[in-house]
Amino acid sequence: xxxxxxFPVTELSSFESxxxxxxxxxxxxxxxxxxxxxxxxxxxxxxxxLAHRGFASFMPGTNFRAWFxxxxxxSYYSSRRRERSRPVTSxxxxxxxxxxxxxxxxxxxxxxxxxxxxxxxxxxxxERIVTAINRLPEEYRIVATLYFMEDLxxxxxxxxxQCPVGTVRSRLHRGRKMLQKxxxxxxxxxxxxxxxxxQDNA
Amino acid sequence: xxxxDRTNCEEAFRRLDDFLDHRLTPEELRIIEEHLEVCAWCxxxxxxxxxxxxxxxxxxxxxxxPPDIVARILSRLPRTPEAGS
Lengths: 202, 85
Fold this sequence. Notes:
Mean pLDDT of chain B: 84
Number of strands of chain B: 0
Oligomer: heterodimer
Order of helices and strands of chain B: HHHHH
Number of strands of chain A: 0
Structural class of chain A: mainly alpha
Largest sheet of chain A: none
Helix content of chain A: 55-70%
Largest interface: A-B, 55 and 39 residues
């Protein structure tokens, strides 16, 4: 949806109209990357500046959103290159397949019906789902954000990340599993589902 | 009978992500759909994963950017060049 700028978009020059059409989603992605409103706006501003400056290299008729996200991600990486080189470890790494499906059954949530996960997701709400995305290690968080929030294809994500489609596929596969575990952890922490009783080691 | 019968649930499951993301070839899709027709167990798992996936997408896409962010950012940019020029 085109945001309300206070004047008709048709009067805007091409960069402005293309940017206006994807700025809200770019901000959403930036929020997931930086986890801060101020930093997210700064990041989109930096990317808009670079995109504006390099707009002559954009081929009209190609995918502006994927082109802009590539610049956004490059801006993000260069702003925190040092942190990026740190090895990432996460307790989400070893998540088995069908994690929520298996746990839902144990916790009494539906596992069948027309929309079986809806009850759990409604109880979690959007904010907790965002929190779960934020818990993913960065490389998975970025792919998951582009996939879940923007509905970019594997090819568009690969273009934005400048990596092979196979890398997108494998990160997305692991990222989805990690997200399931993160969602369940949050559901336990917030009492939406009961935490398993601690084992008695005595 | 499908090539993916009840003994091939594992093979169907390996294609779950591609199935959910509409990345199967027509032939692969046909094979999976035939398997799902005869395998209630896989059907339940596939339906649950689809419900979870679409539900998360739906929730996350309700998030909105601050209403004035586009105008604010554009106001800080210099005058615009034309694409491909």
